Amino acid sequence: MENMTQQGRVETSIENGVGIIEFFHPKSNSLPAKLLLNLTKAIKEFGKSEDVKVIVLRSAGDGAFCAGASFDELLAIKDFVSAQNFFLGFAHVILAIRQVPKFVIARVQGKAVGGGMGIACAADYTMATDKASVKLSELSVGFGPFVIGPAVERRIGISAFQTLSINASEWHHAAWAKEKGVYSEIFPDSNALDEAVSKLAVQLAISNPEAMKEMKNMFWQNVPEWDKLLEERAAISGRLALSDFAIQTIQKFKQG
C-alpha cells in the first residue's frame, strides 16, 4: 500500500448517477504517465457507463489541485519516443474529456500548474476555491505549454494564454482565472466548493442525458479535431524536454 501511495493512484466511485474520478500523487498531485493513462481510462469508462450521467474530476487533499508533469519521470526519460509518449498522456486526458458524451465538472481546490490548468480548462464546468491560483510554468523549465495550449486558448483566448505562457514564473490568482473564464465559480474554502459541486452534479444527474450530450456537441462544434495537432505538439514538447537546457533547468528547479 505504501508503494502504491508513493506512485500515486486514481480512484473511481458512482453515487446517484454521479461518477467521481479522484487522482492523487504525493508530490503536489503531479501526473506521471501511469496516472495519466489511468485518468484517461476512467473518463472513457464513465463515458460508456449507463450508471453515470455526469462526471466529477477531482484530486485528493487540501493542497495543489495538480502540479502538472512529473519532473522525476521527465528526468528519467532518455529517448524521444518515450518523451513524446509522456506528453501524449496529457493529450489523451484532454481528448477523453472532450469526447466523452457527458459533462465533466472539474473541482479545483488549490493551485493548478501546467497540465493541471490544461485539465481545468478542458472540463465543461470548473469550480474552484479562491486559493486556486494558476500558472503555465513550462517555459521556465525549458519547454512550453504546447499540448495543453489548445484547451487553454479555447477557454481564455489568445491574449490571456500568451500572458500566462510568456510570463511563466508568475502566479495569477483565482479571481483573475475566473475573470478570464478558467473557473465558472470560485468559493472561499473547500467545504463551500464541495457543497456547490455536489449540488450541481446532483442536478445534472437528473437532467436529460440526451439533451446534455447534444449541448456538449454544441459547445465543441466549432473546434477542429485535435488528435493530430496534439500529437504534433507532444513531439515538440518531447524534443525540448530532452534538451540539455531543459534537463539542467529541471534539475536546478528540483534542487530548490
Write a structural description:
- It is a single chain.
- The chain is of the alpha/beta class.
- It has one domain (2-190, 207-254): 2-enoyl-CoA Hydratase, Chain A, domain 1.
- The chain has helices at residues 2-7, 33-48, 71-76, 80-99, 115-122, 149-166, 174-180, 190-205, 209-220, 227-241, 244-254, and strands spanning 9-15, 18-24, 54-59, 104-108, 112-113, 125-129, 134-135, 185-187.
- The strands form 2 sheets. A 6-stranded mixed β-sheet has the order 1-2-3-4-6-8, sandwiched between helices.
- The protein starts with a helix and ends with a helix.
- The model has no long low-confidence stretch (mean pLDDT 95).
Q: Give the radius of gyration.
A: 17 Å
Q: Report how far apart the termini are.
A: 29 Å
- Architecture per CATH nomenclature, i.e. the level-2 architecture: Alpha-Beta Complex
Main beta sheet: strand number and arrangement? 6 strands, mixed
Mean pLDDT across residues: 95
CATH topology: 2-enoyl-CoA Hydratase, Chain A, domain 1
Class from helix and strand fractions: alpha/beta
Keywords:
256 residues; alpha/beta; 2-enoyl-CoA Hydratase, Chain A, domain 1; six-stranded mixed beta sheet; two-stranded parallel sheet; 11 helices; 8 strands; 53% helix; globular
